[in-house]
Amino acid sequence: MAWKIQVNAIETMDNVMKRGIPIASRCCLCKDAAENRDHLLWQCSKTEQIWSWMCAKFNTQFDFTCIEDAMKKMKQRSKLIKDIWNSAVIATIVAIWKLRNKITHEEKDLNAKFCEKMIENQVKVTARLSKATGYNNLEKLKITREWQITTSSTNHPTMLLEAP
Ligand SMILES: [Zn+2]
Protein backbone atom coordinates (compact mmCIF):
# COMPACT_ATOMS: atom_id res chain seq x y z
CA MET A 1 0.00 0.00 0.00
CA ALA A 2 1.15 3.49 -0.83
CA TRP A 3 1.08 4.69 2.74
CA LYS A 4 3.46 1.92 3.80
CA ILE A 5 6.03 3.32 1.40
CA GLN A 6 5.35 6.72 2.92
CA VAL A 7 5.84 5.31 6.42
CA ASN A 8 9.23 3.99 5.35
CA ALA A 9 10.08 7.46 4.10
CA ILE A 10 9.00 8.88 7.45
CA GLU A 11 11.16 6.37 9.31
CA THR A 12 14.11 7.43 7.19
CA MET A 13 13.31 11.04 7.95
CA ASP A 14 12.99 10.08 11.57
CA ASN A 15 16.57 8.83 11.57
CA VAL A 16 17.75 12.00 9.90
CA MET A 17 15.95 13.91 12.61
CA LYS A 18 17.61 11.86 15.33
CA ARG A 19 20.99 12.70 13.89
CA GLY A 20 20.13 16.21 12.77
CA ILE A 21 18.67 17.80 15.87
CA PRO A 22 21.15 18.89 18.48
CA ILE A 23 19.61 17.82 21.77
CA ALA A 24 20.66 20.94 23.61
CA SER A 25 18.81 23.41 21.40
CA ARG A 26 15.45 24.96 22.25
CA CYS A 27 12.37 23.93 20.36
CA CYS A 28 11.91 26.61 17.71
CA LEU A 29 8.13 26.34 17.89
CA CYS A 30 7.30 26.62 21.59
CA LYS A 31 10.71 27.92 22.71
CA ASP A 32 9.96 26.19 25.93
CA ALA A 33 11.62 22.79 25.81
CA ALA A 34 14.69 21.07 24.55
CA GLU A 35 14.11 20.06 20.97
CA ASN A 36 14.14 16.42 20.05
CA ARG A 37 12.10 14.33 17.68
CA ASP A 38 9.56 13.11 20.24
CA HIS A 39 9.03 16.58 21.60
CA LEU A 40 8.63 18.13 18.16
CA LEU A 41 6.23 15.52 16.78
CA TRP A 42 4.17 14.46 19.76
CA GLN A 43 4.69 16.67 22.81
CA CYS A 44 5.22 20.26 21.72
CA SER A 45 2.31 22.53 22.64
CA LYS A 46 2.42 24.09 19.15
CA THR A 47 2.37 20.86 17.21
CA GLU A 48 -0.27 19.51 19.58
CA GLN A 49 -2.51 22.28 18.26
CA ILE A 50 -1.92 21.09 14.70
CA TRP A 51 -2.66 17.46 15.61
CA SER A 52 -5.78 18.47 17.52
CA TRP A 53 -7.01 20.52 14.57
CA MET A 54 -6.41 17.55 12.25
CA CYS A 55 -8.02 15.03 14.61
CA ALA A 56 -11.08 17.22 15.18
CA LYS A 57 -11.75 17.12 11.45
CA PHE A 58 -11.87 13.32 11.78
CA ASN A 59 -14.17 13.54 14.75
CA THR A 60 -11.51 12.07 17.00
CA GLN A 61 -8.91 13.09 19.57
CA PHE A 62 -5.17 13.49 19.56
CA ASP A 63 -4.25 10.70 21.97
CA PHE A 64 -1.33 8.95 20.27
CA THR A 65 2.41 9.39 20.59
CA CYS A 66 3.81 7.43 17.66
CA ILE A 67 2.99 6.74 14.02
CA GLU A 68 1.93 3.14 14.70
CA ASP A 69 -0.70 4.17 17.26
CA ALA A 70 -1.89 6.97 15.01
CA MET A 71 -2.36 4.57 12.09
CA LYS A 72 -4.38 2.19 14.27
CA LYS A 73 -6.94 4.81 15.17
CA MET A 74 -9.12 4.52 12.05
CA LYS A 75 -8.75 0.75 11.69
CA GLN A 76 -12.49 0.14 12.09
CA ARG A 77 -13.58 2.85 9.68
CA SER A 78 -14.47 2.68 6.02
CA LYS A 79 -11.68 2.45 3.46
CA LEU A 80 -11.96 6.05 2.35
CA ILE A 81 -11.70 7.38 5.90
CA LYS A 82 -8.75 5.07 6.57
CA ASP A 83 -7.05 6.23 3.37
CA ILE A 84 -7.40 9.93 4.09
CA TRP A 85 -6.57 9.47 7.79
CA ASN A 86 -3.31 7.68 6.98
CA SER A 87 -2.36 10.36 4.50
CA ALA A 88 -3.31 13.10 6.97
CA VAL A 89 -1.10 11.55 9.66
CA ILE A 90 1.86 11.40 7.30
CA ALA A 91 1.15 14.89 5.95
CA THR A 92 1.04 16.23 9.51
CA ILE A 93 4.44 14.76 10.35
CA VAL A 94 5.98 16.04 7.12
CA ALA A 95 4.34 19.45 7.61
CA ILE A 96 5.62 19.76 11.18
CA TRP A 97 9.13 18.85 10.05
CA LYS A 98 8.99 21.36 7.18
CA LEU A 99 7.62 24.05 9.48
CA ARG A 100 10.45 23.40 11.90
CA ASN A 101 13.06 23.63 9.13
CA LYS A 102 11.57 26.74 7.61
CA ILE A 103 11.36 28.53 10.94
CA THR A 104 14.91 27.49 11.80
CA HIS A 105 16.45 28.44 8.48
CA GLU A 106 14.40 30.97 6.61
CA GLU A 107 10.89 32.17 7.34
CA LYS A 108 10.59 32.96 11.00
CA ASP A 109 6.98 34.10 10.90
CA LEU A 110 5.41 30.92 9.56
CA ASN A 111 2.73 29.38 11.71
CA ALA A 112 0.33 26.46 12.01
CA LYS A 113 -1.66 27.68 8.98
CA PHE A 114 1.25 26.57 6.82
CA CYS A 115 0.85 23.00 8.14
CA GLU A 116 -2.93 23.06 7.86
CA LYS A 117 -2.74 23.96 4.17
CA MET A 118 -0.27 21.15 3.49
CA ILE A 119 -2.42 18.62 5.32
CA GLU A 120 -5.58 19.76 3.53
CA ASN A 121 -3.93 19.49 0.14
CA GLN A 122 -2.65 16.00 0.88
CA VAL A 123 -6.05 14.81 2.08
CA LYS A 124 -7.70 16.17 -1.08
CA VAL A 125 -5.19 14.41 -3.34
CA THR A 126 -5.60 11.13 -1.45
CA ALA A 127 -9.39 11.34 -1.60
CA ARG A 128 -9.18 11.84 -5.34
CA LEU A 129 -6.85 8.86 -5.78
CA SER A 130 -8.60 6.57 -3.32
CA LYS A 131 -10.27 3.59 -4.94
CA ALA A 132 -12.63 3.36 -2.00
CA THR A 133 -16.24 2.85 -2.87
CA GLY A 134 -19.21 1.90 -0.79
CA TYR A 135 -22.03 3.64 0.90
CA ASN A 136 -21.74 6.86 2.78
CA ASN A 137 -22.70 6.81 6.40
CA LEU A 138 -23.30 9.78 8.61
CA GLU A 139 -19.77 9.93 9.95
CA LYS A 140 -18.21 9.56 6.52
CA LEU A 141 -20.37 12.41 5.24
CA LYS A 142 -19.40 14.58 8.17
CA ILE A 143 -15.68 13.93 7.71
CA THR A 144 -15.69 14.42 3.93
CA ARG A 145 -17.61 17.65 4.45
CA GLU A 146 -15.04 18.80 7.03
CA TRP A 147 -12.27 18.28 4.49
CA GLN A 148 -14.37 19.55 1.60
CA ILE A 149 -13.74 16.47 -0.47
CA THR A 150 -16.06 14.74 -2.87
CA THR A 151 -16.10 10.97 -3.11
CA SER A 152 -17.30 8.37 -5.50
CA SER A 153 -19.31 6.79 -2.70
CA THR A 154 -23.04 6.53 -3.03
CA ASN A 155 -25.59 8.16 -0.83
CA HIS A 156 -28.09 5.64 0.32
CA PRO A 157 -30.76 6.84 2.74
CA THR A 158 -31.17 3.50 4.48
CA MET A 159 -27.43 3.21 5.13
CA LEU A 160 -27.10 6.35 7.22
CA LEU A 161 -26.67 4.35 10.39
CA GLU A 162 -24.32 1.79 8.91
CA ALA A 163 -22.10 0.26 11.55
CA PRO A 164 -18.54 1.60 11.41
ZN1 LIG B 1 8.13 22.75 21.33
Question: Spans with pLDDT under 50 lasting ≥5 residues?
Answer: 155-162
Structural class: mainly alpha
Shape: elongated
What bound compounds does this protein have? zinc ion
Question: How many angstroms separate the termini?
Answer: 22 Å
Order of helices and strands: HHHHHHH
Number of domains: 1
What radius of gyration results from the CA coordinates? 17 Å
Roughly what fraction of the amino acids lie in strands? under 5%
Give the mean pLDDT. 82
Number of E-state strands? 0
> Main sheet?
none
Helix run count: 7
Helicity level: 55-70%
Organism: Thalictrum thalictroides (Rue-anemone)
Protein name: Reverse transcriptase zinc-binding domain-containing protein
Pfam families: zf-RVT
Domain Reverse transcriptase zinc-binding: 2-51
